[in-house]
Amino acid sequence: MEKIDIRPETGSPAMLADLKIVNRRSVLSAFRRGARLSAGDISQMTGISRPTVVKCIRFFQDKGLLISRGKGSSTAAGGKRPEYYTLSENRYFLSIALWPRELRASLYSIGHTLIGKLNLPQPLPATAEETAKQAAALAARLLREQCVLPQDVCAASVSTSGTVDRATNTLMFSSHTPQWGTHVHLLDSLSALLGTETPILLENAGKMCARPFLLDSTLRNQRVLVLFTTWGVSSSFIEHGRITNGRHSLIGEIGHMTVAPDDPEPCGCGSRGCFERMISPRRMRVMLAAETAKHPDSALAGHEEDCTISELFRASAEGDAAAQAVSKALAHIFAPVLRNVSLVFDPDTVILQGDYAAADEVFRETLWQEMAGFRYYADGVPFQLIADHRSISEMDAEGAFIALDHLYFSAPDLYRDEEE
Q: Domain of 126?
């Protein structure tokens, strides 16, 4: 077990007060992610004396955050049986997903146990106000079904398409719901349900789905681009273990890079020829219909209108000529975007999430061939390309837990005495 260096337990009253907070943070941190530990375990992990650890545990028991799990087995020497503790099972994190065709709620214990979830497949309501009310109603239903009181929710999150103003916790704009306008309030109904003191985090869905990679030790020292591809295209730029943002939260909104300025289809962002429009399932089906007209023996002929991107790549991998032509065409659109991203971010690794995680070898080989002509790639390899096949819904829920875990356990008041 790795030790955590802290200051010695001596000093002035001010130093002792600060050290008390440091000790409490270290002790509670040891329990995160559902660990079951004794005071002796924590003392060994942190280097904090056992009596001080016991005081910290009692402090959090009084707050209802730690509970006893009973006695363990005696040691080989026959010593006193240690008492084990875990995070409370009666404190929760709630996450809401407001996605264009899905409304979803997930409830976790603060120890990372999934308690329950509800999914409502439907288009978002026409107004932001009605969307916010439906989200709060779904959250209330989930809490009722799990017999959880709203006041026992420690923190909540909402993930959505679009850009987020972190200073005001509002949706700045979403091209998927342009009729909502700008600086949209989505959290009022949920705040009314949970109480105004419960922190609620609003986050872009692509960035929420990228958060699990912050804990991937194999990526710790890399510059990583996580590319979210499903009902839209978004990305997250990860450097030094942090997702980078900007004043307008536009860092990573590569779905709105213009790749075909003469394209007639308008995008909700106000431009034409946006990347996410050019590689969308609808545009893929238009391409596929043109190719199946040339290859009427294609297995996809007659199924163009309901073909998914993953089905297209599967057919391409099986040698279907029409599917392979479309796979190559999509790679031709991807290549200049990733080349341009390389010029401004130079990632070590690019991770594909969602629809394009299913990309076949025809797509990959075409992509590399397109990018190989750029001579600034000294070794000929622009980056490591990884396909992450996990469900983006599950990644969103996991990313929400990571975000809420950090938000809640970073709050200074959690470690202070009430009189402070």
A: 92-210+395-412
